[in-house]
Amino acid sequence: MSVQPILEVENVSQRFGNFVALNKVSVAFEPGRLTAIIGPNGAGKSTFFNVLSGAFPPSSGRVRFQGKDITGLAQHEFARIGIAKSFQITNVFKQLSAHENVRVAAQMRETRFQLLRPRASLRALIDKADALLERVGLAHLRDKTAADLAHGQQRALEIAMALASDPVLLLMDEPTAGMSPEETGVMMGLIRQLAAERTLVLVEHKMKLVMGLCERLIVLHHGEFLAEGSPEQIRNNVEVRRVYLGE
Ligand code: ADP
Ligand code: MG
């Protein structure tokens, strides 16, 4: 790799009791790129995602972000250093409106930074939330209660909330899970736009979906690194074809 990686995973293993969910996985991510982690069900994708996003520290191995060791860093520190994530399961405040959800997320960021600079005015937070809703295509649903939004819209809302921390790196676990084909199309368009602005790492089960979207794919299988490369290389990789056909 010619440029300094933004994120490096070195020899990461994750054990649950005797079960090895990840076995010595090493991967480096280049800044500004859209990379997808793919693999059949049970491959260890979500476990890998949880390690990257700090949900739990790995059993062994290191994770470095912008050259700094962040292994075991507390969950709430991740947003502060510039890493945000959206989960496989939708995670919004159901009783709040779309706008209130994003405002809360923006407010949380300000609270984190308030020792460093004056608190943002309420007006600034309102405007930021509106800009983010616009960004993810939800401006027209601003005052709708999150519970009343369609599934795809809730996922988009969650992304707006993740963006409220102005992340350098955005991690997404199966952003199109449970979506209709139409919702999937909208989400892929949004991901494409976001990828133009920042580093994005996507975990995705559906290989076809990411082929047209990502510059680089990493394949996990049974908790092990299986392959990496361009969509073209991955499409033609005999082992990758075998594990996907064998599902
Ligand atoms: P994927 O997201 O690729 O489908 P996961 O990372 O969710 O795979 O799971 C990988 C393997 O680890 C699976 O066999 C799963 O049952 C196991 N696993 C995941 N989380 C836990 C856990 N908290 N405790 C025990 N086993 C787990
Ligand atoms: Mg998963």
Automatic annotation (TrEMBL):
Transmembrane segments: none annotated. GO terms for cellular component: plasma membrane. Residues 7-247 form the ABC transporter domain. InterPro entries: AAA+_ATPase (IPR003593), ABC_AA/LPS_Transport (IPR051120), ABC_transporter-like_ATP-bd (IPR003439), ABC_transporter-like_CS (IPR017871), BCA_ABC_TP_C (IPR032823), P-loop_NTPase (IPR027417). Keywords: ATP-binding, Cell membrane, Membrane, Nucleotide-binding, Transport. Pfam families: ABC_tran, BCA_ABC_TP_C. One of its GO terms (molecular function) is ATP binding. It comes from the Bacteria. The keyword Transport applies. The keyword Cytoplasm does not apply. This is Amino acid/amide ABC transporter ATP-binding protein 1 (HAAT family). It comes from Roseateles toxinivorans. The lineage of its organism: Bacteria, Pseudomonadati, Pseudomonadota, Betaproteobacteria, Burkholderiales.
